[in-house]
Every structure is written in C-alpha cells, then in structure tokens.
Design goal:
Elements: H1 2-19, E1 45-56, E2 59-61, E3 67-70, E4 75-86, E5 94-100, E6 104-110, E7 116-124, E8 131-140, E9 143-153, E10 157-165, E11 168-170, E12 176-181, E13 186-205, E14 208-225, E15 230-239, E16 242-254, E17 258-264, E18 267-271, E19 276-280, E20 284-291, E21 296-301, E22 304-306, E23 309-311, E24 316-326, E25 329-341, E26 346-348, E27 353-355, E28 359-367, E29 372-381, E30 388-391, E31 395-397, E32 401-409, E33 413-425, E34 430-442, E35 444-449, E36 452-456, E37 461-469, E38 472-473, E39 478-485, E40 488-496, E41 502-507, E42 513-524, E43 527-538, E44 543-548, E45 551-553, E46 558-565, E47 570-576, E48 579-586, E49 590-595, E50 601-609, E51 618-627, E52 633-638, E53 647-653, E54 659-664, E55 667-672, E56 677-682, E57 688-696, E58 705-713, E59 719-724, E60 735-743, E61 752-760, E62 763-771, E63 775-780, E64 785-793, E65 802-811, E66 814-815, E67 818-819, H2 820-842
Transmembrane segments: 820-840
Keywords: Membrane, Transmembrane, Transmembrane helix
Length: 843
C-alpha cells in the first residue's frame, strides 16, 4: 500500500513539471528525477527539440531570436528532435508535433533512444499569408518539451505599373483605363518582395501571353515593349500555379489624329501632304489645327518656326510644314507649299484680222497665274471716233478661259481695242488690270472653183467658194447662192465658210442644160460682193445589167431581171432573135418580167432602153438556149386478166398531143388524148403474155417518150354442172341420161375432152368422151343399186380443167329396162278393172 502511494506522488510531480512552462529550461532540455527512498533507480529523461531552418525554393532561412520569415506559403521546416539521456531504456515511440497558429498542424512518431537525434523535414503547403506562432513539441512517455517561434510571411507583390514613351510617363492604377497615342511604349512593372524569391511573371498584352522567370529581392523593375493594341494589359506573379499578385489595366492605343486648315481671306482650305495653296502677294495666311489632346503642334515656313499667321510679301513658292509631337516623338508631319503670285493676267486673241463690214466673232483668251475665280472683262475701242460696233461686252468669267464678242468694223486699217479686267480671287480680294489689243480690218474678196463645171445628168454639181481678206480666210460667214437654168431659178440656199474661209456648194441638177450659179456675200447693208460660175449638164449614159436564165426548158417562163444605173424609172424593151416579145417597167432602176419562148432552140436576147432627154439610149444582149421539154407517159392497165375479158388501158402524157399509138404485141391501137389523158380497151383472144407499149416520137419542142408493160392473161374458169334427166325411173338394163352444162362469162369455146368415172357396187369404169355445153351423155346400166358418177372436164385452149362429182343415181330391178313395180302397177290396174267391171255387171 505504501509502495503504491509513492508511485502516485511521483507521477503527479512529473505532470506538474510538464504543465508548468517556467520549469521548461531553454534549449528544450527536461530533467525528470524520481526521488524515492527505495533502492529501485529513478526514471529520468532529458528531451530536446529545435527549429533548425525554413527552406523555400533554393533559399534557407534560419531563426533569429526565435523569428523566421518567408515570402512563399510553400516551404519546409527542418526540426531537430533528440533524447539527451535517459536513466532507463526507452521502449516507446517519441511523438513530434508542430502547430502553426490555428491553420496548420503536423505530427509524426520517431524512433529515438537515449543519446540519439533525428532531423525531420516538415512540408507546409498553401499556408494563408499572415504572422503566426510555431509550436514545436516533442513527447515520450510522460515527458514533454516544447519550443515556440514566430513566423513572418512577406507576400511578393506588383507594387505599381507605368508606361514610358517619348520621354513621357503614364501611370495607370490597378483596374483602371488609360488612353495613349501609339509610339512604341514600354510597360514597366515594379515588383517587390521582402525576401529573395524566384517567381513566374505572366503578362497578357491584349490576348498575347508571355511568361518570364524573375528573381525578386526587394524592389525590382521589369520592362516589356507594348505593341499597338486596344485591350487588357495584365501581369501576375505566380509559383506552382498559385497567383501571389495581379496588376491589370485597360489600354486604348489610338493613332495620333490631326487636321490642318489654312485660311486666306474668306476662304478656308483643308491641307494634306503635297497640298499647294495659291495666294496673291500682300495678304496673310493663317493656320488652324485640331489634333489629339496630348499632342503639340509646331508650324514652319522655309524651315523657320512661325506662328499661326504668315504675311506673303514676295512671289514664289514657300515650303510649309506642320509637325505634331507626342513628348519627344514626332507622330505627324504635313508638308505643303504656298505659291504666291502677282495678279497680272495674260490676254491674247487668235484673231489678228477682221474683214470689213462683216459681223465677226472675236475670241479672247484670259490666263491669270494668280488664284482668280471671277473676272469681268470690258472691250471698247481705244478711240470713240473709230467706226466699230462691239456686242457682248462686258463678259463675266470664272477663272481662266476664253470668250467671244461680236465686232463689226466699217473702216479698213488698224483698229486698237482697250481690254479692261476687274478680278476677284478665291479669298475675296479684288484687282484691276487694263491692256490694248490691235486688230487689222481687211476688205474681203470671193472666188468660185471651178468657174466652169462639166457633169452628166444625175451627178452632183460641187464647187468650192473661197472668202478671203488680204489672203486670210474669213470664217463662219453666211453666203447666199442662186442657181438658174435658162434664166429660171431652180435652187436657192445659203452656205457657211469654215475655219479656213471655204464653203462647199453642192446641188443636183434635175435636167440637162447650162446652169449659172451666183454666190453673194452681204455682211452689211453698205457692202456686198457677188461671184458666178457655170455648170454644163450633159445626158447621162445608162448602164444595163441583167440576170437571165441562160438555159430553160420549153414551156417554162424566162425570167428577165434588169437593173439600170442610174436607178431611173423607164420602160425597157425585149427582143428574141429580133422579134419583140415584151417590155419591162423599171421602177427606180429595177424591174423584171416573165416571157415564154414560142419554140425550143438557140436565141439572142436583146434588152433595149430607147433613151430620154436626160439619158442616152442603151443596149444589152444575152445568149439563150431553150431546151426541148421532156415528155412523160404514165400508163395504168386494169381488168381481170382472164381471156375473153377486156383490159382497160389508160394513162396521161405531158406533151400536148391529140392521139397516141398503143401497141399490144403486134396489134396497133390509136388512142385519143384529151387534156393530156387517154383511155382504150383491148380483149385478149388467147391466154398468155402480152407486151403493151405506148410510144410517142416527139416533135420540135418535146422529147420522145414511151412506156411498155407486160401483162399475163390466164384461162377462164368454167362452171361445169351435171343434171340427171331420168333420175328415179332407171331400171337395170336401161341408160342413165345426163345433161352436161358448161358455163363461162364470155362467149368462149367449151368443146373439150372429158373423163367420166362410174362406180357401181365396187366396179369402176372410165369413159373418155368429148363434151361441150349442153352435151347429153347416156350410160347403160346392167344391175340394180347405187351408181356413183364423177366427171372430169379437161379444159381447152381457153378454159381450165373442172371436176364434178360424186353424183349418185339409184337403179332399180327390172326386165328389159322396165322396173318391176311397173308390172305390179299394171297387174293391180287390170285386177281393179276386172273387179269394177264385175261390180258394174251385178249392179
């Protein structure tokens, strides 16, 4: 009981030592001593536990004043656990426990013995960032020791970002938006870590991702060029897939925009590269621009910086340029020129002369090098006493160009004209200019070429009229002409001279004779000239062309087509071998007709035009051959083709004849032809093959023609019949009397041989005889019974064979050819007579 109480007291004392931290000496050593009054040894165990280091990536951190730090939440703790000594052997496992705040705990069993230690790596993953207390505890049996450390975690971060370009810095805040002009900007990222660390920096430039390994120890600046984009820019620090810091902003890159306007007076011009601005000296140009707000502008004239206004003093070309800057970068340059002029126009006229008394159109050309947009031009004689009339002045022009005025000069010689201009340029500035144009007034002359023209009727009379003044052609003038024939006007009209002073006069005479042409030029009431020419018109030759069938067949129409050149309307006469056969009415040069030659042969066709007042006679000839017409015969033979029957021979013939011979073998039949058709009949006397020929020998206009056909005529079929004249009264010993009937359709001979076959009670006899129609035959009988008779008609030259039978004749018994029943009848008659006689007697 005492021993049990002592063990209980010692156990409570050990627990008190472990529970009291003031009893835990530095270094983690624990001395446990059991005090007993017994001789048994007291258990005493000294434990030790320490945090040696914290390791992340390739960096090792050692505790300083029980404080250890790390930039990552992935790290490894190295723990040294040991049992310094023990008074008794230890047979139990040692428990090592680590606890980091309330967010992480770890424990493991160690196999330690007295005087041994063990280094333990404790991995820590995904620890939330913060400052924590690390409690390291080692315990075995009832002995425990602990150590406490402070853990400080420094999270790597992207502190800031800014863009640098052209010497300017733009600092977008996180999750902000920045607008910059594109000029090769650099993205600068300020990274910071209190402890050295190697992380992965992932950048996103508008969807283009890049990855870099960066080592940060304190402050670190990372630079990356930024491409032109509109989108999101982001950067992220990460390690093993865990993001530690993110920075993001929106970039809108814009192309630098700008526009330049130059004002000159009231005009405003948009300027681009290569523009040219015309101005007049003595005026200023002003520059106005609009551009992106963070740009600057600089204007230079001939490489000298100027302000927004520039006075143009001298003529010439000025090189101007406007430069747009973003910081130290040139983002835009517009080069153009300013061309300065004096408002001195050049006035010219292609008309150095004008004809006297002619309403002429004088052309003036105005060319002003200055930017003139409106001119008003005044034309007047230099001396008011000069006899000239000017119409169409003043003239309004827009810019450079030409114009016309009407001028009528009534005095020959030099004529000076005063030309004055009032000009306005596009800026609204006005100018005045005056000069003198000298014209020479000339007297006109007129000629007609040729003066005598010979043509034939139907041709055009064409002449050339030349209107000149001192050798210069007078242009665009109207000339009146008159054409007479035998003093009678046949044509009136007007013509106009061209740019060389020539006018073409053309008319078509409507008759032969001598025509006189008068041409008059009257430019004014005070001046007129007239020239004349003659035209002799002779009768025209008529050319005949024709189209004729050179070969035709008699009976066909001959088509004669005629063309007359020129295409006149007239009558043309036709002759065949000098015999008149007709005429053609030709209309507008063309006509045709159809004629029929009276006979076949060779002919000469003459086409004759007799001529008229305006046309000469003309003849054309052609050779013609008229062939004999073909003759065609068609024949049809109809009938039964049986001897004794008529054959119908019909047909038609194309030749116009009245009769035609028909040959049947050697027999001649003359058939009459009506309307080209013929028909005859013929009765063949005998059967056989007949050759039927129709032939016409032809005449002067038709060729011969003929046709032959063969027909076969056959024998007739007779209708043979037998009539027994005494049938029913024939007794043996008497004759069978038969009537032979031979019927034919035509009256042909019937006489022919015949064979009679008689069969009586199996006895057959043959009788040969000659028969004809209605021949009576007798056959003597010698026994009673049925007699079967066959008759074979053997035919003749006209009739075919025929066969009749069987004919059955019944022969009864009799004496001397008298039937027995005759005797019976006579006997009965006698007996009846006797009876009647007796009866009469008794009565």
């Amino acid at each position: 009981m005492r021993k049990l109480l002592l063990i209980l007291v010692l156990a409570m004392a050990s627990l008190a030592i472990v529970a009291n931290p003031q009893l835990n000496p530095p270094g983690g050593l624990t001395n446990a001593t059991h005090i007993t009054n017994y001789t048994k040894p007291v258990l005493n165990i000294t434990l030790s536990v320490n945090l040696i280091s914290l390791t992340y990536e390739n960096w090792v951190k050692y505790p300083v004043n029980n404080v250890v730090s790390t930039p990552l939440n992935y790290f490894t703790l190295l723990i040294n656990a040991s049992i310094i000594n023990s008074t008794e052997p230890i047979n139990e496992s040692t428990m090592l426990s680590i606890r980091i705040g309330n967010v992480y705990s770890y424990s493991t069993l160690l196999n330690l013995t007295a005087g041994s230690y063990q280094l333990v790596n404790v991995p820590v993953y995904s620890l939330p960032y913060g400052n924590y207390s690390i409690n390291v505890t080692l315990s075995v049996m009832n002995f425990t020791t602990s150590r406490f450390y402070n853990l400080i975690m420094y999270k790597p971060t992207i502190v800031n970002a800014y863009l640098t370009q052209c010497g300017l810095t733009t600092s977008p805040s996180n999750n902000s938006e920045v607008i910059i002009p594109y000029s090769s900007p650099i993205l600068n990222l300020i990274l910071y870590s209190a402890e050295p660390v190697k992380l992965n920096l992932v950048s996103n430039m508008g969807g283009v991702y890049s990855s870099y390994n960066v080592t940060i120890n304190g402050k670190y600046v990372f630079r990356e060029p930024l491409t032109f984009m509109n989108g999101t820019v982001s950067a992220q620090l990460a390690f093993n897939g865990q993001a530690y810091s993110t920075y993001m902003f929106q970039v809108n890159s814009v192309r630098p925009w700008y526009s330049i306007n130059v004002t000159y007076g009231s005009a405003s011009l948009r300027v681009t590269n290569g523009s040219s601005i015309p101005v007049v000296t003595g005026h200023s140009v002003n520059f106005y621009s609009s551009y992106l707000s963070n740009l600057t502008m600089e204007t230079m004239i001939n490489n000298q910086v100027t302000g927004n206004s520039f006075l143009i003093v001298d003529t010439g070309s000025y090189n101007a340029q406007v430069v747009f800057m973003y910081g130290s970068c040139t983002v835009g340059l517009v080069k153009f020129s300013i061309n300065a002029y004096e408002p001195v126009p050049l006035i010219t006229s292609p008309n150095s002369t004008v004809p006297l008394g002619v309403n002429s159109r004088i052309v003036f050309n105005v060319n002003v090098p200055a930017p003139i947009v409106n001119e008003k031009v005044y034309i007047s004689p230099l001396s008011p006493q000069f006899p000239v009339s000017i119409t169409g002045s003043p003239v309004a022009l827009r810019g450079n160009g030409g114009f016309e005025v009407g001028l009528l000069a009534l005095q020959p010689g030099p004529m000076p004209l005063n030309v004055s201009l009032i000009m306005v340029d596009y800026g609204g500035y006005s100018y005045y200019y005056s000069t003198i144009i000298l014209l020479n007034v000339l007297k006109p002359t007129m000629s007609i070429t040729p003066e005598l023209l010979n043509i034939t009727y139907g041709e055009l009379a064409s002449m050339l009229v030349n209107l000149t003044a001192e050798g210069y052609g007078i242009v665009n003038q109207t000339l009146q002409y008159q054409v007479t024939l035998n003093g009678v006007n046949v044509a009136l009209g007007s013509i106009t001279t061209n740019s060389s002073g020539y006018a073409s006069l053309t008319f078509k005479p409507n008759d032969t004779g001598v025509y006189v042409v008068y041409v008059t030029y009257s430019p004014s009431q005070s001046f007129s000239i007239t020239s004349q020419a003659k035209v002799i018109v002779a009768p025209a030759k008529v050319n005949i062309s024709y189209l004729v069938n050179s070969t035709i067949v008699y009976g066909d129409s001959l088509t004669v087509m005629v063309n007359l050149n020129p295409g006149i309307t007239a009558s043309v006469y036709l002759y065949l071998n000098k015999s008149f056969i007709g005429y053609i009415n030709v209309i507008n040069g063309t006509g045709y007709t159809h004629v029929k030659p009276n006979e076949a042969g060779y002919f000469n066709l003459t086409i004759y035009y007799p001529g008229s007042r305006n046309y000469l006679p003309s003849v054309a000839e052609a050779s013609l051959m008229v062939l004999k017409a073909p003759c065609t015969i068609r024949m049809s033979i109809n009938g039964s083709f049986i001897v004794g029957s008529e054959l119908s021979i019909s047909g038609n013939v194309t030749a116009p004849i009245s009769q035609i011979p028909i040959y049947v073998n050697k027999s001649l039949i003359i058939a009459y032809v009506t309307n080209g058709k013929f028909q005859e009949s013929y009765k063949p006397p005998y059967p056989g093959l007949y050759n039927i020929t129709v032939y016409w020998p032809g005449n002067n206009n038709y060729l011969s023609c003929g046709l032959n056909e063969f027909v076969k005529v056959i024998k007739a079929n007779p209708r043979v019949s037998i009539r027994v004249l005494n049938n029913g009264t024939i007794a043996s010993g008497s004759s069978i009397i038969m009537l032979i009937l031979i019927k034919v359709n035509n009256n042909l001979p019937t006489r022919a041989n015949a064979s009679i076959l008689v069969n009586s009670s199996g006895r057959v006899r043959s009788i040969n005889t000659v028969v004809s129609n209605e021949t009576v035959l007798r056959i003597v009988t010698d026994k009673a019974g049925p007699w079967i008779i066959y008759v074979k008609y053997l035919g003749n030259e006209w009739l075919n064979d025929a066969y009749v039978g069987p004919i059955v004749v019944y022969v009864v018994s009799g004496v001397f050819g008298i039937p027995w029943y005759i005797f019976t009848i006579y006997a009965l008659a006698i007996i009846m007579g006797l009876i009647i006689s007796l009866l009469m007697r008794h009565s």
